[in-house]
Design a protein that fits this description.
The chain contains 18 helices and 26 strands. It is α+β, with helices and mostly antiparallel strands. Helix 13 packs parallel to helix 17. The longest helix has 28 residues. The radius of gyration is 27 Å and the shape is globular.
Length: about 750
């Protein structure tokens, strides 16, 4: 099948009993009920769903097909295809006989959800080890069945046969089909991304791979395009009511009086109010929308909590640091080196708050019935949402089932977790299943934001033109003011509006590169949030958390130093980077793009329309990316067209080059949007970026005409992440290309037409 399963209720055991050909596809939204009468007699034979059980990851079905239970999920990159390839490879079964079930807390253990580009780096590693162990167990069983040593057996398409006599054979289905593995794994005791539970088996040598490395196409695209898939917004259950949340016009205000009589004329409309938590429910969705708009509320007289937007960066500069970290350890003595400098190059860069701006606002459905809670959500991290629901509802976690159901997008901590928690509070209050969907203005106005920041860079140059010291400092709002998931109520809007004690976290980051200077210091500082509770400017993870802004600054600055020294930007980088994989991606991008050595900026252009090229590179958790942008600049209109990108990408072993290439293209397009357009606007009371007019994103007519990708494959190196690294250098590559074209350095994102015209003037 190429479609997602329609919402249904069946047991995990019944999945294994089901026949028919299965291909890898997203295995949600489905609901699993372990207490069905027809398989109650089998329940005692099923091992517990724990990380140390092989059956928690792999099952061979009665028809010989394979179910892979994956505690992460695919947020759009085609991860499920690559995971299916890994499982099929290790088990020696056809790719189309594997089906991957993702992110359902009833069928998978907590492998961290979609997080940090670890789908293959961590999640795939575990699925590889589990599949390898399943093959080992099956071969042992086949050896007993056939009366032959394991080393005299081979496997093809799920059939084990004697190497010397092909007629002596037994299939996986014959050996174990329909029953559960009961094999203990060596679990490291960790949940989330670092979960690792190998068995006794070693995975295949990459040189023997037949399925891993193939460009297998996704089969879920057409059903999505033709509206044959259920998204979270499509899920319905009997007796369901609809809900909307009501947020204050002044951030920080709480309801003092709520006039329920003001919506009495709306059929079935009902108010749920508890401290700062305020929502309405109704039998019909339009009635819930009308009730939310019509309800009369008297709000507290909260002082406007925000500075004028024009003063944002001064606020960051002047705010006392809440935490400071130097990482890694300072090399040499930076301060002393600057005292001896013949010349100092210095610059500061600015990055705004940005919204996740998901295609649609979040939606969640929560049903509480007979002491059990079921939640359908587009969250990236369903196992963590389960923990959050248990905490806020004061219910046992084992009684809560979260079903990951594709939503409108995510890429970090968007509003999905908040919506699930709000829906749970509403469902508990009204005693009915509640489907809550935020409105567009809430999806953009009230989602957790990528943090605003400033970045200060200095380079000390000696009399010979050598860089003798480098000092880089990022300062901004924390990327974990609210944490990366909804497992703790104090990190959600529901918890914060209900008055739960707060626990804001501190985190930022430093450039990920291998520049070697005799004296080098990279550091970060975080400052307190503008409003500590239920803020529309609370900050959290947005795709490649703080990576784009840090590398916008650090890689722009490397170009500034190169230009000041009259050196070609690539030549300058190659003088100083030390990681051989960094060198390789920089050289590969330059060669593919036809880079000709010269300093920036160009000196051979005049007129209103000019063009330029820019290089930027970065690492991210083991992945190395170099990127060359070629841009056209219209001086008169201020419009930038990022016309072409050349990307060299090294993420170790490539599992699926087709999916990887498309992921890189998506990163580039998203990165362009964040660079050219995206900026959260606010006044002293509230966020004013609430729709696509006030929070514009990249238009399809503005996308590049070409993204040329160079994939560098290292089968001998375990796969690292690809979902985020190639978004990291985009802003710097564009900024450096604009400088090359115009000779003007723009140090504040976004590069919108108004900002560009102002800079060029």
């Amino acid at each position: 099948m190429t479609r997602m399963e329609k919402s249904a209720t069946f047991s995990r055991r019944s999945v294994l009993k089901a026949g028919g050909a299965l291909v890898v596809s997203i295995g949600a939204p489905v609901s699993f009920d372990f207490a069905r009468a027809d398989d109650a007699t089998l329940a005692g034979a099923k091992p517990p769903l724990t990380p140390d059980q092989l059956s928690s990851y792999i099952a061979v079905n009665a028809d010989g097909t394979v179910s892979a239970f994956f505690g992460k999920m695919d947020m759009g990159q085609g991860l499920f295809v690559a995971v299916g390839q890994i499982v099929a490879e290790e088990l020696d079964v056809p790719f189309k006989s594997v089906k991957v079930f993702m992110g359902d807390t009833a069928t998978s253990v907590n492998q961290g959800g979609a997080s940090g580009s670890t789908g293959l780096q961590e999640g795939g590693k575990q699925m590889r080890m589990a599949a390898a162990e399943a093959r080992r167990v099956l071969l042992d069983m086949a050896a007993d069945n056939l009366g032959l040593p394991v080393d005299q057996l081979t496997v093809t398409d799920g059939v084990v046969q004697a190497k010397s006599a092909a007629a002596r054979r037994v299939s996986y289905a014959d050996l174990v089909g329909g029953r559960f593995f009961n094999v203990h794994l060596d679990w490291n005791g960790k949940y989330g991304n670092p979960l690792y539970a190998p068995g006794k088996a070693q995975p295949k040598d990459p040189k023997d791979h037949q399925i891993v490395g193939q460009p297998i196409k996704r089969e879920d695209v057409a059903p999505k395009v033709f509206a044959q898939e259920d998204y979270c917004t499509d899920i319905k259950v009997p007796g369901m009511v609809h809900a909307r949340m009501i947020r204050p016009a002044v951030a920080g205000a709480v309801p003092l009086k709520v006039d329920e009589a003001s919506i009495r004329d709306i059929p079935s409309a009902h108010v749920v109010w508890d401290q700062g938590f305020l929502g309405v429910v109704a039998d019909k969705e339009w009635d819930a929308i009308r009730a939310a708009e019509k309800l009369k509320v008297e709000w507290s007289d909260a002082a406007p909590p925000f500075p004028d937007q024009a003063a944002l960066y001064d606020h960051i500069r002047n705010a006392p640091p809440r935490k400071r970290v130097v990482e890694p350890k300072e090399a040499g003595n930076v301060d002393d080196a600057f005292k001896t400098a013949a010349r100092v190059i210095e610059a500061e860069y600015e990055w705004p708050f940005q919204s996740h701006s998901s295609m649609g606002p979040a939606c969640a459905l929560v049903e509480i019935k007979d002491g059990h809670v079921t939640c359908w959500s587009g969250t990236q991290k369903p196992h963590f949402v389960r923990a959050g629901l248990a905490a806020i509802l004061q219910a046992p976690e084992e009684n809560i089932h979260v079903i990951w159901t594709p939503g409108p997008g995510s890429y970090g901590r968007n509003d999905a977790d908040d919506c699930a928690m709000d829906a749970a509070i509403l469902a508990k209050a009204v005693g009915k299943p509640v489907r809550l969907q935020y409105m567009r203005n809430q999806g953009t106005g009230w989602d957790p934001k990528g943090p605003a920041s400033i970045h200060h860079a200095r380079a000390a140059i000696d009399a010979s033109g050598t860089v003798i010291a480098y000092d880089f400092l990022s300062k901004g709002f924390s990327r974990v003011d609210v944490d990366t998931n909804g497992s703790k109520p104090f990190d959600t809007m529901a918890g914060q509006t209900l008055g739960i004690a707060l626990k804001s976290g501190d985190g930022f980051g430093v450039p990920a590169e291998s520049y070697a200077f005799g004296n080098k210091r990279t550091a970060w500082e975080t400052i307190a949030p503008l409003l500590d509770r239920a803020s529309p400017l609370r900050s959290s993870h947005l795709r490649d958390p703080v990576g784009p802004q840090i590398h916008f600054a650090s890689e722009s600055f490397m170009d500034e130093v190169a230009a000041a020294l009259g050196v070609d930007p690539i030549e300058f980088r190659l003088r100083h980077v030390r990681d051989p994989r960094d060198v390789s991606v920089i050289k590969a991008a330059a060669e593919k793009a036809g880079w000709r050595s010269r300093p920036s900026p160009r000196t051979d252009q005049s007129g209103d329309k000019v063009s330029g090229r820019g290089i930027a590179y970065a690492q991210r958790n083991g992945t190395h990316v170099a990127m060359i942008a070629e841009v056209d600049v219209d001086r008169r209109s201020g419009k930038i067209w990022a016309r072409k990108f050349t990307v060299a990408h090294d993420c170790g072993q490539i599992v699926n080059p087709d999916g990887l290439r498309m992921t890189i293209e998506g990163n580039v397009v998203h990165g362009i949007s964040r660079t050219l357009w995206e900026e959260v606007k606010f006044d002293r009371k509230k966020v004013t970026s609430i729709d696509w007019m006030t929070y514009p994103i990249l238009d399809i007519t503005e996308t590049p005409e070409e993204v040329d990708v160079v994939l560098i494959n290292h089968p001998e190196i375990a796969p690292s992440g690809a979902g985020e690294p190639s978004s990291r250098p985009v802003a710097a590559a564009i900024a450096n290309a604009i400088f090359d074209a115009t000779g003007v350095r723009i140090r504040r994102v976004p590069f919108s037409p108004d900002h560009v015209k102002s800079a060029l003037s």
